[in-house]
Amino acid sequence: MGGEEEEGIERNSCSSDYGLRNICIGAAAFRGDEEEAMMSYWRRGDREKLLEEIGVCCCRNVHKVRFQIERPMSVIASSEVVVDDFELLETKKSAIRNAGTGKLQVIADFDATLTRYWINGRRGQSSHGLLQQGNSEYDVKRQELYDYYHPLEFSPTLPIEDKTKLMEEWWEKTHGLLIEGGLTYDAIESSVASATIAFREGVVELFEFLEERGVPVLIFSAGLADIIEEVLRHKLHRAFKNVKIVSNRMVFNSDGRLVSFKGILLHILYIHLPPVGPTSS
């Protein structure tokens, strides 16, 4: 959260056994009103199963990934996409194609999924990691929390129940420091402007393609919604009417100073995705 990941460790890997470099954007085909799309990028024990259920392509050690449902198997086989089961991929593509755009929703994580993991040989920053409060004392305190809790996030011995409580504790303390330290929206704008963060190749084109066809995009993140929105504005220079962000939302007073957070606390192991159907705004 407060700092950046060690080289070679991907926060949103599919599981600790694989060390995957990238997770592709997941597309979930809705079958009427009976089913809801459920996505979790964080609970490691369940993640691969959940990703498989909604048709996400996970790729190992590949930096440039394109998931195009129009591609025949022969083209995919010779491209930069790595999949475990080509026949299963074709089955999923057919299901998505047959369901049509009216029953399609794209669900994507933000940090190191829509954004690049490496930028000019450096680790790209996350929506939490890029934030500088304009108060060095509190920036140091947030880094100290990161140094303590981050190893616990990846601990192979902690039960998931204990780890979940620790992640809740980490996020609550970090949010408390942002409020106590007097974070302003001006500081967010300044932090984003100077941040080492960039979108992956093809993200803009993908968003435009989906917007033209009325396909909703849900960015689901344990980061900070206000920073994600500022990154979208600063880096893409436009808004997309079909994009919805589910993340930790800040509340600012009339002076532009952070006073609270609203909504459910979304931490790295939060697994309950609020239902958002194809017609949601």
TrEMBL record:
InterPro entries: HAD-like_sf, HAD_sf, Pyrimidine_nucleotidase_eu. Keywords: Hydrolase, Magnesium, Metal-binding, Nucleotide metabolism, Nucleotide-binding. One of its GO terms (cellular component) is cytoplasm. One of its GO terms (molecular function) is magnesium ion binding. It comes from the Eukaryota. It catalyses: a ribonucleoside 5'-phosphate + H2O = a ribonucleoside + phosphate. The keyword Ribosomal protein does not apply. One of its GO terms (biological process) is nucleotide metabolic process. It is an enzyme of class 3 (hydrolase). The lineage of its organism: Eukaryota, Viridiplantae, Streptophyta, Embryophyta, Tracheophyta. This is 5'-nucleotidase. Its EC number is 3.1.3.5. It comes from Kingdonia uniflora. Belongs to the pyrimidine 5'-nucleotidase family. The keyword Metal-binding applies.
